[in-house]
Amino acid sequence: xxxxxxxxxxxxxxxxxxxxxxxxxxxxxxxxxxxxxxxxxxxxxxxxxxxxxxxxxxxxxxxxxxxxxxxxxxxxxxxxxxxxxxxxxxxxxxxxxxxxxxxxxxxxxxxxxxxxxxxxxxxxxxxxxxxxxxxxxxxxxxxxxxxxxxxxxxxxxxxxxxxxxxxxxxxxxxxxxxxxxxxxxxxxxxxxxxxxxxxxxxxxxxxxxxxxxxxxxxxxxxxxxxxxxxxxxxxxxxxxxxxxxxxxxxxxxxxxxxxxxxxxxxxxxxxxxxxxxxxxxxxxxxxxxxxxxxxxxxxxxxxxxxxxxxxxxxxxxxxxxxxxxxxxxxxxxxxxxxxxxxxxxxxxxxxxxxxxxxxxxxxxxxxxxxxxxxxxxxxxxxxxxxxxxxxxxxxxxxxxxxxxxxxxxxxxxxxxxxxxxxxxxxxxxxxxxxxxxxxxxxxxxxxxxxxxxxxxxxxxxxxxxxxxx
Length: 469
Known about the structure:
Layout: E1 2-7, H1 11-26, E2 31-36, E3 48-51, E4 54-57, E5 63-64, H2 69-77, E6 83-85, E7 93-97, E8 100-103, H3 108-113, H4 119-126, H5 142-149, H6 152-167, H7 176-179, H8 181-190, H9 193-209, E9 224-227, H10 232-241, E10 245-247, E11 252-258, E12 261-266, E13 271-274, E14 276-279, H11 283-289, H12 295-302, E15 306-317, E16 329-331, E17 340-344, H13 346-349, E18 358-366, H14 378-393, E19 401-412, H15 418-430, E20 435-437, H16 447-468
Parallel strand pairs: 1-2, 1-14, 2-10, 7-16, 14-20
Antiparallel strand pairs: 3-4, 5-9, 6-9, 7-8, 11-12, 12-13, 15-18, 15-19, 16-17, 17-18
Helix pairs in contact: 1-10, 1-16, 5-6, 8-9, 11-12, 12-15
């Protein structure tokens, strides 16, 4: 029987274990899986915390249903009927600019009426279709791409807030190829984004006439989806379906070679031998564990930076909030001088997140452009966030409920050169047969990406086992 050790019991690690067991049963193959989690709880950065009738998400608050992988996992777990789609009003998103919350335009007429972008900025943006495409395949920053194709104003008011909202990242360093490969593909294939949207819109209409199911012409969209009791239902349900052993408070200090397999040394003493090791740990943790195994691999994964983040949950009596809260929330461009990156109207997205007659707001502070925020005291974090809520939404009342969650290493940053770094990592792994990597540090930070990557690594492990005979 082959022992497979999986390091990390977040979504990636748990999904990998579940996928492997499913494939092994189908292939009538005996494997012994043990999942090793450093903390005393499962789920990684997924943690739905219920407190005083509020439901606060410590990390991500859901997944988009535009990709099939998490929905398929829910089917396999038998929990699809428990899914909760976000409220339709949550499709409305806003940008705070020049003292006003502007709704993000969703079509051409809304774009023309919107005051978010000035008329010179609109003309510059609409001129994107006349700019020659970049087809050299070389990576570039999101900021360079934005200035080149859409103009400085669109970069500041559209691209930069989006990058901070998704990655907590800095567009001046983030990689277009690794963060938004679809956008790079559209430019290379169609010559530009507007040309691509026109062509894809025509194709979509044709496919609709033919009765085919199609995605949005503008690329992946989808509806934010969670569960009634929070996204933690996903990891909890996955853990209950794993038949192998799951050990909590089992941190790994080192991964070492032994007899063609591996020896895992636990923090505090003790070892575990395994023929196959799959790391679903953060890149910085993996770098620590691989010291002495392969110095080049250690250096490569240690080069993947992380952005810190404070998550601040505020609960209010509904009558204290003048704003309609009719939407998803808003992002704040850096030039506005606010401390927070933006605020989600959590109880508008999923109405059961707050008790009757109350609302829940969730603000983000920090990221790659403001890493020092993680060092602020709770009192300072609270004061600065309240000041931003006053400036953006006119909220002057004191909250009835406050929770602050700190993530010193919250989100991996796919900076320029990320794709080349991953290629070098894959090459190093060829000399370390039996060692596999998954998790959000490599091929996508979203929950869908993590589920997909876990399935892929499970398939590679099964192919390797089959090759062994």
